[in-house]
Amino acid sequence: MNPKLAFGAALLLALSIVALLPQGLAPYPRGYSDPIRFEETAQGTMWYYAPEAPSPIFPLGSDHYGYDLLTVLLWGLRWTLACVSLTAAMKTLLGAAIGISRALSKAGPKKDRGFSPLAGIPSFVFVFFLIYPVTINSPLGSLRLFFYQCAVMTVFDLGGIIASTAAKTSELMGSSFVESAISSGAKRPWILRYHILPFLGEELLESFADQTVAVLQLVGRLGIFSLFIGGTTRTYDPVILTSTTGEIAGLIGLYRARLLMNRWMLFAPLSAYLVILAAFRSFSSGLRQRERKQRRVRAA
User: Fold this and answer.
1) Would you say 223 and 276 are in contact if contact means Cβ atoms under 8 Å apart?
2) Helix (H, G, I), strand (E, B) or coil at 87
3) Which domain holds residue 222?
4) Is 276 exposed, middle or buried (0-12, 13-18, 19+ CB in 10 A)?
5) Residue 229, pLDDT score
6) What is the mean pLDDT of each run of 10 residues along the chain (300 residues)?
7) Is 64 helix (H, G, I), strand (E, B) or coil?
8) Rounded to an integer, what distance in angstroms lies between the CA atom of residue 186 and that of residue 180?
9) What is Dmax (Cα atoms) for the chain?
10) How far is CA 179 from the centre of its chain?
């Protein structure tokens, strides 16, 4: 295992453990808020008002509602990792299924259908307009909304996975051992199970790792527009948008206005986001390096 792959896998394992055990690591109970507090000192009573800078009381500081940022991040991490992993897995499986079906049906490349007015529109735009109507004050609840958001993000940008899987499957179908199996009367399900899927595992794992990075970036862009994984809560008079689940990428969008003041509010979720991104990028890059090394060994 190369260093990048080992580092990425170890960091993802550590993040997963933290996401599963936030109650044992968070300094405060979930939902605890302390917007105004006081301490008795030799000089008298000292009053503190949210937001507070990082201190022994609030290791990463508190936000303008008095929530401890470390506690919020620890509880929100599970939503980020679950969304990224589930969506990337579904994208990989769906794209692979379509690619394999296309290769097995021997469908040639699609004919050029000319200019499409939708071709130049980024997939983020479609995701935004499909998610927006049900995300703010959603009647679905956080869990059902979570699965809906993951499903919407799954169905876009599948072209790369479909093309690579179809090409690999076509290559395998033309190999000597598959042709021998066909000559011996092997049926397509047998060929798929014993001659195609075992050789696609490495490529699908690499596609999954690449998709985790892409999904994390997409979630971050949605957060900038206050569309948070698990739901956005909007209150009126004044109008305030907050993350229902405290998902980390969404917190960046929530606290982005604090860039010029109370910077710790933006620094904490941004740092956590970069750590998650580094873990997925390192894992993805390590897999690609291992695959290239194995190809060189096989070629030699």
Assistant:
1) no
2) helix
3) 3-107+122-162+199-299
4) buried
5) 92
6) 86 93 91 85 84 90 89 93 93 91 67 52 88 91 93 89 86 78 76 78 84 89 89 84 86 80 87 90 84 67
7) coil
8) 9
9) 92
10) 40
Exposure string of 92-119, with b = 16+ CB inside 10 Å and e = fewer, is beebbebbbebbbeeeeeeeeeeeeeee
pLDDT at position 100 is 87
pLDDT at site 178: 74
Q: Is residue 137 part of a domain?
A: yes
**Residue 24, C-beta contacts closer than 8 angstroms, at least 6 positions apart:** none
Tell me, what amino acid is at 116? S
| Residues sharing a CB contact under 8 Å with residue 266, sequence separation 6 or more, in sequence order | 252, 255, 256, 258, 259
What the block records as the tokens of 260 is: 């010029």
8 lies in a domain? yes
Tokens 């093309």 — which residue? 163
Residue position matching structure tokens 């395998």: 172
pTM: 0.84
Q: Residue 172 falls within a domain, yes or no?
A: no
For position 86, what pLDDT does the model report? Answer: 95
Residue 190 lies in a domain: no
Residue 214 and residue 45 in contact, taking contact as beta carbons nearer than 8 Å: no
Tokens of 118: 């939708």
Name the token pair of 46: 């000292």
CA 219 to chain CA centroid, Å, is: 7
Determine the Cα–Cα distance for residues 197 and 162; give it in Å rounded to an integer. 15
Least Cα distance to 248 among 213, 274, 281, 214 occurs for 274
Residue 107 has what pLDDT?
Answer: 47
When divided into structural domains, the chain yields a total of 1
pLDDT of residue 60: 92
